[in-house]
Design a protein that fits this description.
about 0% strand, 2 helices, elongated, mainly alpha, about 100 residues
Length: about 100
């Protein structure tokens, strides 16, 4: 969660900060002694990767949870109904 200024808040704030520290240590060369000297392309890559992958992970978990609660758990005793995806999610298929 973020406040209106884009600053992380809430219980997971420290987890996010620790994750960002690891990403920066792995991706920013040590030759830069000041954040302002790090080239913009490196900064943009870091920002994009961390945020996009975080959002993708959250979205995927939420989607799987929705599918499980709405379709899988109610049909756990009727396995034949689980062989095909619901009509609204026909694009979901098991990769061969």
């Amino acid at each position: 969660m973020y406040n209106s200024y884009g600053v992380p808040v809430g219980k997971k704030r420290n987890d996010l900060m620790n994750y960002i520290k690891v990403i920066v240590r792995e991706r920013v060369p040590i030759i830069y002694d000041d954040w302002w000297k790090v080239p913009l392309d490196i900064k943009e890559t870091l920002k994009a990767k961390t945020q996009v992958f975080k959002w993708m992970g959250i979205a995927l978990r939420a989607f799987r949870c929705k599918l499980a609660n709405k379709y899988i758990l109610p049909n756990a005793n009727n396995l034949s109904s689980l062989k095909k995806p619901p009509l609204e999610y026909e694009g979901i298929r098991k990769e061969d």
